[in-house]
Design a protein that fits this description.
The chain has about 270 residues and is mainly alpha-helical. It folds into two domains: about 80 residues, no CATH class; about 160 residues, no CATH class. β1 and β2 form a beta hairpin.
């Protein structure tokens, strides 16, 4: 570390001790001692510090290298706070995949299928349709149809059915399998994907990712698409488990719509 930050060993030791005293780092998890053989042939106990200690020292040390480190860390932190993520593109490319790459893909898929992001993507998709009209109320119905179609293909239930069947006050955490914090919030209780099993969630995430990847490709190719074209594209890539059950849901769904909106939605559903 002294060589890394271009300072003295004594200065490094001072900063490490201060980090421990101030409770910034827990020594038991950050330090391990190993026996090393010196040039004189004798074995000595040498302390090895983890990455947390190195980062902490980098924020404390007064040297040119310390300043360079803090400037780099500031850029990374700023990007994280503004964008919500920060990536080392070169490291991921050179690693050639591996566990971190798989983890990144899984997290991206999960984000893409979250309710707010999914809704935004569906609206963007709807806006690329030749028959797009922002003044009509069909956009919300289009979102519900696409969302329920993907849910149904992933686990055999619509979004509303999942919540109705799996939300249970007698179960731990209301039956939720995914939530933030120590206890589920009211908003999380009303999101269908929060009740899915790990396998169901993985299937749903992959379906969402594949569908919107295809949509981006179609947009790049400048292929004219109507709303029902997107529905048909989705249908090609999913397999409904129970058509009679799906038809029953669509009938009930149409009854909930204002009369003037039914004709457009029926036209969408007829593509299936």
């Amino acid at each position: 570390m002294a060589e890394l930050f271009q300072t003295t060993k004594r200065n490094i030791s001072l900063h490490i001790n201060n980090a421990f005293k101030e409770g910034e780092i827990e020594p038991n998890s950050a330090v391990k001692e190993y026996l090393t053989t010196a040039a004189d042939g004798k074995s000595y106990s040498t302390k090895h510090y983890n990455l947390d200690v190195i980062i902490s020292v980098g924020y404390r040390v007064k040297s040119l290298r310390g300043t360079q480190f803090r400037r780099w860390a500031l850029e990374v932190l700023r990007e994280y706070l503004v964008k919500g993520f920060s990536m080392n593109d070169d490291l991921l490319k050179k690693a050639g995949g591996g566990n971190y790459w798989r983890e990144l893909l899984e997290r991206i898929r999960d984000i893409r299928s979250s309710e707010k992001v999914f809704y935004r993507q569906v609206l963007d998709l709807y806006a690329t349709s030749v028959d797009y009209d922002p003044r009509t109320p069909e956009s919300l119905e289009f979102f519900k149809i696409v969302q329920n179609k993907i849910h149904f293909a992933a686990h055999g239930h619509t979004a509303a059915e999942v919540i109705t069947q799996r939300a249970n006050a007698e179960l731990p955490f209301m039956g939720l399998t995914v939530f933030s914090g120590e206890q589920p919030t009211k908003g999380e209780v009303g999101i269908a994907k929060n009740y899915l099993t790990e396998e169901e969630l993985a299937t749903l995430n992959r379906m969402v990712s594949a569908f919107f990847d295809l949509a981006e490709l179609r947009a790049m190719q400048h292929r004219p698409m109507y709303m029902w074209d997107w529905v048909a594209e989705l249908d090609k890539r999913t397999i409904l488990r129970d058509m009679s059950k799906w038809e029953k849901w669509t009938t009930g769904f149409l009854r909930t719509l204002p009369f003037h909106a039914r004709e457009s939605v029926v036209h969408l559903l007829s593509a299936w």
